[in-house]
Specification:
By secondary structure, the protein is mainly α. The protein is built from three helices and no strands. Helix 2 packs antiparallel against helix 3.
Length: 135
């Protein structure tokens, strides 16, 4: 072992029973450095995976937000058209014919929006789960 690298263990009282049983002999202590390096490498890989997943999730949310903005514009357009209809037609005609059709269309758009959001969430969750399971 290099003289400039010194491994310092925590006090015995701070170690769990499983850690104490692992560090029972000189041979175990000599293997501690390689065990530490392996754990450190695995932690680094997991952190990188987490950073990658976080980045993908961020970009997916940005994409979802932009599509949500488009849907918001559709709702504003529909609201504007309803206002125009109200000024041009009788209230009974609007309530009897146009409003139910518009309500069905708005419900359909909202269902598609919710499904798209759920699809994106499930896909990201599956990707994350697959990444964690394959580590």
């Amino acid at each position: 072992m290099d003289a400039s690298i010194q491994i310092t263990l925590p006090p015995v009282s701070a170690l769990s029973s499983s850690a104490l049983s692992f560090l029972n002999s000189e041979q175990d202590l000599s293997q501690a450095r390689s065990f530490f390096n392996e754990l450190q490498s695995q932690c680094f890989e997991l952190e990188q995976t987490l950073i990658d997943l976080n980045s993908r999730l961020h970009s997916t949310f940005l994409s979802y937000a932009s599509s949500s903005d488009g849907i918001l514009l559709l709702f504003h357009d529909a609201s504007s058209k309803l206002t125009d209809l109200y000024g041009q037609r009788r209230k009974e005609e609007i309530l009897g014919e146009d409003l139910p059709a518009l309500a069905k269309e708005v419900a359909r758009v909202e269902m598609v929006r919710a499904y798209a959001g759920l699809y994106v969430f499930v896909a990201q969750f599956e990707d994350g789960l697959f990444s964690v399971v394959n580590l």
